[in-house]
Please model this.
Amino acid sequence: MPSRLDDLNGAVFGRWTVIANAGANHNGNRLWRSRCSCHAATERVVRASKLRDGRSASCGCARAERSASAGTIDCTELRAL
Model:
């Protein structure tokens, strides 16, 4: 049984909300079922260490949003050389 410090149920890390304990992997790392707050409401099992240190902050939706906004170019002010 996990101690109170290890209980991440309901905790929010980036866009992840922890919804249930998922046990441990073969290396003994704690796993947590988490739901992303994006429109897809993706659920995944994520290692506790990745949640805590920020290496996993979303299902990938945040990266896609950053890429989409960074790739837009306003061509209205471009001039031919």
Observations:
- The mean pLDDT is 85.
- The domain at 4-71 is CATH 3.30.200 (Phosphorylase Kinase; domain 1).
- The chain has one domain: 4-71.
